[in-house]
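Worked example 3 (structure in, sequence out).
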C-alpha cells in the first residue's frame, strides 16, 4: 500500500539532487556524491527521484530519522510536518506544551522575533530545499535530457512525474506564502547560479494559482490514476480551494466564489466520507482504505519504510504521560497496557478549546475520560487527570488528546515485540474531504448573509455532524463554522490560518490560554505577527531579501 516509499527506501542512495542551495544553512544535498549522469543512468531512476520529493515532508535525510540534512541540533525536531503543525497550532489555541525548548516558548506565547528558532528554521529551510529538489528534478527530466540518455520510451510517463513534482513545488511555495508572506522565489535557473529574488505575497499567490490551473489542464494524474498517496488533480483542486478561501488575507481581494467552486469540484471527484471519524486516524488507516477514501492528499508514515520522529509519531508520542495513556487503554478495553507506545508528556489541550466540543455529562473526578464519550461529539478524543485548567508548570493539568494514537483498527497497539514499534504508521491528512465541505459552506455564507442556507451547503455540514453524533443547528453561522473547523480539523495544521482569516488571531476580543504569554489570553497581538520573519541567515546570504515588516 505504501509502494512509492518502498521504492525510495530500496534505492535511496541512487537519488541525486546535486544542486547548491547556497542561500540556506544546509548540509550537502548530495549525501552520496553521485553525479546526475550516474543517478539517472537507468529509466527507473525517475520514479525514485519523485519518491524522494513525495517523502520530503516527513524525511529529514536520505539515511535515517536520527540524522538531518540541514544544520540543526535535533533531527526529529527538524521535520517539516512536525514544525508546520507547531507554527499553525501551538501559536493558536489548539494545543499547549509543557516542554522548555526555546522555540516552544517563542511560538506558544506568541513572542517570536526575527531570531531563528527550531520551528521557523525547519519549515522555512525544508520548504526551500523541497523546492530545490523539484527544480533539480525538472531540469533532469527535460525532453532533451531524456533523449540524450536514450530514455525516449518513458517520456509520457515522466511527463506525469513532472506534473506531480510541480504540485509539490506549489505546495512548498503555498506553505511559505501562508507562513512567511514574502519568501525567496527560486526557480531551476537559480540552481548553481544567482541567488533567487524575493517575491511579494500577492504575486506568489498569482503564480501558484496559475501553476495549479496549468496542472489541471495538463499532465497531472486524474484521481485513481496513480497509487495513493501520490497527488492527483484532486490534490491540485484542493490546494486551490484552500488558497481561494484565504485569498483576501494573501492578496487583499476575496475569492469566495472561486473557493466554493473549487471545493465543489473536489467533492464531485468521488472521495468518500468514512462512516467513522475514528477510522481516519488508526495506525493502519492506509491498509483499511480509510485514508484513500477521505484523504485528498496525505503524508505517508510507515514504521518500516517511512520512519520519522515528527508528524504523526510526534502527535501520538507527545500527547500522553504514563497514567493518562494507561487509563485510556483501560477505558477502551484494549489488551495493551497503553494506548501510546511512547509517552513524552508534552502536548496538552486547554479547556477553552475543549469547550468548543459538545461534551455530555462532564465529570472532573479524574476516573474516566472526563465526559460521557457515548453521548458526546465523536471527534472528541480527550481525557483529563482531574483538573480542567492547563498550567504549564504542572504537567498533569489540563486535557490530553489521543486523536492520533498507537492503535490499529482491530484494537491492537504497537508493542516492543514489533520492529520499529516506536514509529507511527498513521498517514497525516494535508487535505481531507471534510475540509472541502467546510470551505464550500463558509464561502456560501460569506457570499450571502453570513449563514449557510442552501440544501447543499447545509447537507455537507449535516454529514459531518451526523458522523460526529451531534445535531445540526438550524442557524449555521460563520462563527459556528469556525468552531466546526476546530472540531473536525483539530491538530491537522489549520488553526492559525483560520483565526487570521476571521480576524481573530491578533484581536484581544478572541482570547485563549497563554495568548501573548498571558494566562487568560486577554491581549492583542501585533498585526505584523500574522506572518513569520524571513530567516536572518538567509537574508545575510542573499542581499535580494528584505525582512518582513515589524521584524
Amino acid at each position: 500500500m505504501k509502494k512509492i516509499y518502498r521504492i525510495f527506501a530500496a534505492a535511496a542512495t541512487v537519488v541525486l539532487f546535486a544542486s547548491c542551495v547556497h542561500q540556506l544553512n544546509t548540509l550537502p544535498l548530495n549525501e552520496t556524491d553521485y553525479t546526475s549522469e550516474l543517478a539517472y543512468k537507468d529509466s527507473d531512476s525517475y520514479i525514485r527521484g519523485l519518491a524522494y520529493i513525495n517523502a520530503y515532508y516527513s524525511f529529514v535525510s536520505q539515511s535515517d530519522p536520527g540524522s538531518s540534512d540541514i544544520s540543526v541540533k535535533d533531527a526529529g525536531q527538524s521535520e517539516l510536518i512536525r514544525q508546520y503543525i507547531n507554527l499553525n497550532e501551538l501559536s493558536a489555541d489548539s494545543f499547549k506544551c509543557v516542554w522548555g525548548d526555546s522555540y516552544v516558548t517563542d511560538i506558544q506565547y506568541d513572542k517570536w522575533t526575527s531570531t531563528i528558532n527550531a520551528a521557523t528554521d525547519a519549515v522555512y529551510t525544508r520548504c526551500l530545499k523541497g523546492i530545490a529538489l523539484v527544480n533539480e528534478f525538472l531540469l533532469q527530466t527535460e525532453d532533451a535530457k531524456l533523449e540524450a540518455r536514450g530514455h525516449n520510451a518513458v517520456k509520457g510517463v515522466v511527463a506525469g512525474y513532472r506534473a506531480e513534482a510541480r504540485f509539490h513545488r506549489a505546495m512548498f511555495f503555498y506553505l511559505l506564502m501562508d507562513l512567511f508572506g514574502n519568501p525567496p522565489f527560486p526557480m531551476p535557473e537559480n540552481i548553481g547560479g544567482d541567488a533567487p529574488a524575493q517575491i511579494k505575497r500577492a504575486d506568489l499567490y498569482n503564480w501558484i494559482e496559475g501553476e495549479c490551473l496549468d496542472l489541471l489542464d495538463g499532465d497531472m494524474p486524474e484521481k485513481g490514476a496513480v497509487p495513493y498517496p501520490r497527488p492527483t488533480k484532486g490534490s491540485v483542486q484542493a490546494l486551490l480551494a484552500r488558497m481561494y478561501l484565504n485569498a483576501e488575507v494573501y492578496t487583499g481581494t476575496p475569492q469566495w466564489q472561486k473557493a466554493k467552486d473549487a471545493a465543489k469540484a473536489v467533492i464531485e471527484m468521488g472521495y468518500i466520507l468514512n462512516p467513522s471519524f475514528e477510522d481516519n486516524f488508526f495506525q493502519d488507516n492506509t491498509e483499511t482504505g480509510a485514508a484513500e477514501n477521505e484523504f485528498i492528499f496525505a503524508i505517508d508514515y510507515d514504521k518500516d519504510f517511512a520512519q520519522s520522529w515528527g508528524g504523526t509519531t510526534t502527535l501520538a508520542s507527545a500527547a500522553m504521560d504514563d497514567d493518562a495513556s494507561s487509563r485510556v487503554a483501560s477505558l477502551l478495553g484494549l489488551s495493551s497496557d497503553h494506548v501510546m507506545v511512547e509517552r513524552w508528556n508534552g502536548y496538552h489541550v486547554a479547556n477553552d478549546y475543549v469547550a468548543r466540543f459538545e461534551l455530555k455529562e462532564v465529570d472532573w473526578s479524574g476516573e474516566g475520560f472526563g465526559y460521557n464519550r457515548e453521548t458526546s461529539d465523536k471527534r472528541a478524543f480527550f481525557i483529563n487527570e482531574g483538573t480542567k485548567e492547563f498550567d504549564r508548570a504542572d504537567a498533569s493539568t489540563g486535557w490530553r488528546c489521543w486523536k492520533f494514537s498507537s492503535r490499529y483498527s482491530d484494537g491492537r497497539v504497537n508493542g516492543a515485540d514489533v520492529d520499529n514499534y516506536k514509529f507511527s504508521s498513521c498517514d497525516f491528512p494535508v487535505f481531507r474531504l471534510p475540509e472541502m465541505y467546510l470551505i464550500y459552506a463558509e464561502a456560501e455564507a460569506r457570499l450571502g448573509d453570513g449563514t449557510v442556507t442552501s440544501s447543499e451547503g447545509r447537507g455537507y455540514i449535516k454529514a459531518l455532524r451526523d458522523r460526529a453524533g451531534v445535531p445540526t443547528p438550524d442557524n449555521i453561522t460563520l462563527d459556528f463554522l469556525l468552531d466546526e473547523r476546530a472540531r473536525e480539523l483539530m491538530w491537522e495544521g489549520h488553526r492559525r490560518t483560520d483565526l487570521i482569516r476571521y480576524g481573530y488571531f491578533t484581536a484581544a476580543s478572541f482570547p485563549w490560554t497563554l495568548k501573548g504569554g498571558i494566562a487568560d489570553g486577554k491581549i492583542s497581538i501585533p498585526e505584523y505577527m500574522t506572518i513569520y520573519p524571513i530567516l536572518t541567515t538567509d537574508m545575510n546570504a542573499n542581499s535580494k531579501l528584505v525582512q518582513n515588516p515589524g521584524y
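Notes: Residues 3-33 have pLDDT under 50 and may be disordered. The two ends are 45 Å apart (CA to CA).
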